[in-house]
Amino acid sequence: MKNIILVIDQPPDGKTAEKLRMGVGLILDDGNKVSALLIDEGVFTASGLAKDNAPAWYEIDKHLETFEALEMDLVAHEPSARDRNLTLDRFGIRMAGDEEVSLLLDNADIVIT
User: Fold this and answer.
1) Is residue 58 predicted with pLDDT exceeding 70?
2) Domain 3-112 maps to which CATH number in 3.30.70.1130, 3.40.50.300, 2.170.8.10, 3.40.1260.10?
3) 71-108 in b/e burial notation, b at 16+ Cβ within 10 A?
């Protein structure tokens, strides 16, 4: 079993949806501990500011709901959310400061960016 961190640092799009889908597969197929870190522009991924004309949003929410159902760790960088005036209260997201984010990354066996 590996400790894997998915770093979501770009605005939500099809690539973000693919990364989240891969995370679900990693835990289901291999029994790994998979966490998602939303940082920088990636905090918009769980913002709920969906765009009706962007199908990737539906896929992203579906994967985040699966993360929550599987009790996977969803972590948002608190300074990134604060700087963008976002409140992230969906999907069981846990807020983390700089030190905790650094520890998460340091303790990961694999970091997927």
Assistant:
1) no
2) 3.40.1260.10
3) ebbbbbbbbbbeeeebebeebebebbeeeebeebeeeb
